[in-house]
Structures are given as C-alpha cells and as structure tokens.
Amino acid sequence: MKKIIIYAITSLLLVAIGFSGFKSYQNSTSYEKISRKIVKKHNVSELSKNKLKKIADLLSLGFYTGYEDILADQKKLLAEQVFYKQQAINFTVYFTATVGLVLLLYFVMSLQEFTIVLSLTALIALAIGLFTPVMMMSLHQEVQYLGDVVLMIEFKGVLGSITELFQSRDFVVGGALLLFSIIFPLTKTISMLLIAMFFHYKPAHAIVRFFKILGKWSMSDVFVVATFLVYLSAGKGEMSRAEIQVGFYYFLAYVILSMITSICADKMLRESSAV
What we know:
Layout: H1 2-40, H2 44-59, H3 66-104, H4 111-131, E1 135-143, E2 147-156, H5 158-167, H6 171-197, H7 202-213, H8 220-233, E3 240-244, H9 246-274
Antiparallel strand pairs: 1-2, 1-3
C-alpha cells in the first residue's frame, strides 16, 4: 500500500512538472508575440503618426479622439505583456518547487527508482529549456521629438539559434551549441535512465565510467549557453538591452538535475557491485 501511494504521488509530481513547464513555454511564447506587437508600434513611422494624431486631438478641442484610442490600445498591450511575463515566471517557480518535492523522494524510494524519476525530470527540464526563449535582446535609439524608438527585438532560444547559425553558415558556433546543448545532454540523460532501469547488466557500468571520464564537461552546456549569450550581445552598442528569459532557468535546472542523477547512478552501481 505504501508503494502504491508513493508511486501515485510521484506520478502526480511528474505531471505537475510537465504541466508547469508547458505553461511556462506557452506564456513565454505569448510574451514574445505581444512584445513584437509593441515594438511594431514603436518604430519611427508609427511614432510619427501618433505625434500627428496627438496634435490633431489637441487642435480639435476633444472632437477627435484618435490619440486616446492609441493610448488605450498601448495600455492594453502593455498590460498583456506584463501578465504573460509574470505568468511565465510564476509557472517557473511552480516547476522549481515541484522539483524540490521530487528531490525529497530520495528518502522514501529506492536508489534505482529515485534515479529513474530524476532522469525523467531532467528530460522534461531539458526539453522546456531547449524550446523556450533563453534571452530577449532589443536595440533602442533616442530620437528627438519621438522619444525612445525600438529598432529591433529578438528572442533567442537554443533550438532556433542553432538553426539560424547553420543557415548563416556559422558552423563552428552552431556545431558547438548542437553538440553540448542538445546531443551530449540528451545522450547523457537517456543513458542514466537506461542505467537505472537495467543496472544489473555489465554495459551499465561501462556507460557510467564513460560519463565519469567526461565529467569535466558536466558544466560545459552552461558554459556554452553563457558564451552564446555574450556572443549574441557583442557589438550591439550602448543602446542595446538584454533580458534573460525563463528558458535559461530550465536549462540550468537540467544541468543540476543531471549532475545529481549521475551521482545517484554511480552510487547505485557501486552498491550493486558490493553485494
């Protein structure tokens, strides 16, 4: 009966982790769309039209209300932008809290079961981290009489950026991101999952030894993402602005979970060898 309750709680936690991650991705995507709409209304052409409408509004003594409609539309878009951003953050916090509860399962589960659950959690974190934007960058310029003009806005995620880098024939940076941000993490996590499921087989020990040899690369994915962010922000000038998006935190969560999973898998195999 105790086992059934633990398995039921574990299943609910995994569902909650997947749901929180998906909602974070969903709200981040909506935040990106709204931000792009706002930027389109802050280019030189649109701001010039708004200035003319403001003048017309003043000269008409209240008979023309076009400028008021513009302000109402801008206020609505800004409110939606804040809402989606906050929702993405909230679900990221829910995800983190649920992962914390998963870590507590260590005290009520066998090491094999705990390693399997951690591997699945790490895979979810990796998937969300790869698909969700990691960084938002915008380029601004102060224009006389118009104010702050947004020249460009870009949302960068790992998968989308790898595609763009290969399309622009930047194979070195794109290949490094592909290797250390997708292929190596995915291979490592799936291997840990298989090891936990079939730890009695000899190949499991060889796989763990392989990843222990490559242990010095365990933080390379974080290093690559950090380098990637610097690479994107270089040469943008004083008027550039950057904002970390929730995808970065999911990727960071994956790295931490992956390290814990590797430790548990190694301990599990050592204990099985000692028996």
